């Protein structure tokens, strides 16, 4: 187990390192002088030089990279070129929206997908199976931001039940916040759930064909008991792999969905920063998102070992 | 065991199974009838695809939902064909148990073997986790799993094929069933292990007074382990009787062919194995007459018109052939 | 392995017993999701081609006087806030969508298949390196790479094509390497190696033709993903730029007018959904038809 874990951690660190190098090269080295970009082409050379020094951009590339890494380790991500306030603070105040949104939509995804996937597999080739599977086929084809707009049309424009956008914050208790994240979370989740439901269904059907299912039936277990006690845990391995990959899509999706609902989350911050040429904010936001994706997939890998007893021995 | 020792424990009458295959409906089993008394052992022998496994699964009520079962299967007089699954579940693993061919895949890789062996106990006897575990260890010990008490919490992949088959046997025996169905229990195992497992099964059957249906494609295994036998071909029983009687006077050309096709120990090097010409017929398009007609050496036109009836050629020895007069004149004998 | 097939543009007439491919077409025309998928895909492709020759109105001319008209005989689906005809915008939008999709999938396919074939042929640390790299690229969804590119190079069609193309590579690498490895283990490849054929020749003569059907299926599905990504990027303003019409951009414009003209937000989304649904169904159908072994549980 420990060897397995160690190998995974090494891979994780290497991946994070590679991601940071690429992000740094694209967003710091490639654009040339950020000070020039900030001030525009007609700024006086002296002013540009002064800003360059002020932002620490006169130092060599490697030094800047190392300073960035060191800063990330200590939580000091530097100051926004535009606002002059610490980047870490800017990101932190956006994360209180983006993280709950991601968690909510992942929860909705998993609940919807497992219910639909298990239901359809248990009713293979019956009416319900065909119906739900056709629905998922349509669900996969929906652009999530369009689905979001349709939800706004229905709930905000027609029924006037919920606001069309904006975030109520967490100050008045948890409910107003959750309410304003509900539509965004659903629109992110539905499309992902359609994909995951199909994966769950085929994973469950595959396991249902295994010999040990017949053995379990021969012991006197009913179909339902076999499904819950024997099949699901075996079927979870492919489902979890896809869940891990979906988390990346989900984070990318929050960027889009936050723009649909005018939510002041990480995605909006990235957008404003691109418009403002505030590259230091973009760089740290992108690094954060990439790190979240990599870490979630690492966690999924480690979870395998807890679910599947065969993995531990194979890697010892 | 009880007073009605002579009444059959299991009685199968005119069993038919129709399966929906990708190539259309197939009559996998037809007209199979037999009865099994308590403590009696019965062998089912035939090539793969002859319907012996389907017969076993029909007895277990484990055929796919799309399968159509006709005829009658009675366990101590109560009808099993058409029984609701929920009620069948109370019998499976409790009064009828089954051991499968592939020990490598028959166990759930995610559960400890102790849990899997204890599962039928907890399902049928309602005993508590701790008690079930204790019994599971005792069972694993009985089937000869070394160091059972310590390895009860290990997972299937940590055992060899032979050990796993011992575990599935422990599982099948957990609730002291009346009938054990063993479907090719040794086919997937090393030759050296095969004998040990068969001996174990035989010991347990005798020790617990169980009835057994042993399925095999190997005539040798059948000859040594069961009192009565049935030879199946193309979904029908072509010959049945006391094992000794059948081996002394083989009546059906197919049984004779099977026997000649056995590799013989001590045969001179270079001796060719005798084979039965032709291939097993597709169950989806069986001929109208005798299913063996196309491969039979003594086939006549009359064989192809209708399925031959079973002919008695001795006490309880039936042969489904209209030309027993010819076939039995040249019958090979065991030991010949 | 059936005859090499491309995504069908039109079905040849059924002449009994003509070529082996006839069997494919006969089965294909009976395959429901294939027929539906092909029909929807053809609808989108046809719209794009039609827009090159003819649109009811110009998709570029602004006519503020007739803005936000409801559907009428002149404007079948009405007009947008700048007075442009919705039908014309949708037709030209199909063109942008297909163009971005084709180029992006082309990038993904070219690089992905080459890398995948190399990984399968060379094994060892080459394979390890390529697979680690492609795993790593998974950490950057298309939107994320597009954001990075847009931050540096500015938004535009080129940015979205590059971002989507890069995003497509790892999937093709995985699929190619997986199926190529299976081919490398087959007897006829062993025979070819025993006959002294080199790695390169075996790859071109044996491996590639045998994984072609898998790649066609994958490319169809990736095309659908590319359309979704293009729409999202255009919606965000990172992709296709005005005045070039695109479905994602139309949705962005429509969102500000949700209370006035809600239907403007429905049409372009439906167009995207139809295109993606069509390609997905087509991909599923092709998978069933080209290689039954690949057919997933349906």
TrEMBL record, chain A:
GO MF term set: dipeptide transmembrane transporter activity
Family: Belongs to the binding-protein-dependent transport system permease family.
Domain of life: Bacteria
CDD domains associated with the record: TM_PBP2 (cd06261)
Membrane-topology descriptor: Multi-pass membrane protein
Stretches assigned to the ABC transmembrane type-1 domain: 95-304
Cited InterPro entries: BPD_transp_1_N, MetI-like, MetI-like_sf
Keywords of this entry: Cell membrane, Membrane, Transmembrane, Transmembrane helix, Transport
Native species: Bradyrhizobium ivorense
Any one Gene Ontology cellular component term annotated for this protein: plasma membrane
Major site of localization recorded for this protein: membrane
SUPFAM superfamilies given in the database record: MetI-like
Stated name of the protein: Glutathione transport system permease protein GsiC
Gene (UniProt): gsiC_4
Location(s) in or outside the cell: Cell membrane
Automatic annotation (TrEMBL), chain B:
InterPro entries linked: AAA+_ATPase, ABC_Ni/Peptide_Import, ABC_transporter-like_ATP-bd, ABC_transporter-like_CS, Oligopep_ABC_C, P-loop_NTPase
Assigned protein family: Belongs to the ABC transporter superfamily.
SUPFAM superfamilies hit by this protein: P-loop containing nucleoside triphosphate hydrolases
Keyword terms, alphabetized: ATP-binding, Cell membrane, Membrane, Nucleotide-binding, Transport
Domain ABC transporter: 10-259
Protein name in the entry: ABC transporter ATP-binding protein
Keyword Transport: yes
GO biological process, any: transmembrane transport
Location(s), subcellular: Cell inner membrane
Function recorded in the entry: Involved in beta-(1-->2)glucan export. Transmembrane domains (TMD) form a pore in the inner membrane and the ATP-binding domain (NBD) is responsible for energy generation.
Pfam families: ABC_tran (PF00005), oligo_HPY (PF08352)
Protein source organism: Bradyrhizobium ivorense
Keyword flag RNA-binding: no
UniProt GO cellular component terms: plasma membrane
Alphabetized GO MF terms: ATP binding; ATP hydrolysis activity
Membrane topology: Peripheral membrane protein
From TrEMBL, chain C:
Bilayer topology: Multi-pass membrane protein
InterPro entries: BP-dependent_transpt_permease (IPR050366), MetI-like (IPR000515), MetI-like_sf (IPR035906)
SUPFAM superfamilies on file: MetI-like
Record field: transmembrane: 34-54, 98-121, 133-152, 211-237, 257-283
Annotated ranges, domain ABC transmembrane type-1: 94-283
Compartments where found: Cell membrane
Pfam families: BPD_transp_1
Keywords: Cell membrane, Membrane, Transmembrane, Transmembrane helix, Transport
An annotated GO cellular component: plasma membrane
Coiled coil: none
GO terms (BP aspect): transmembrane transport
Predominant place of localization: membrane
Stated family: Belongs to the binding-protein-dependent transport system permease family.
Protein name: Glutathione transport system permease protein GsiD
Gene symbol of the encoding locus: gsiD_6
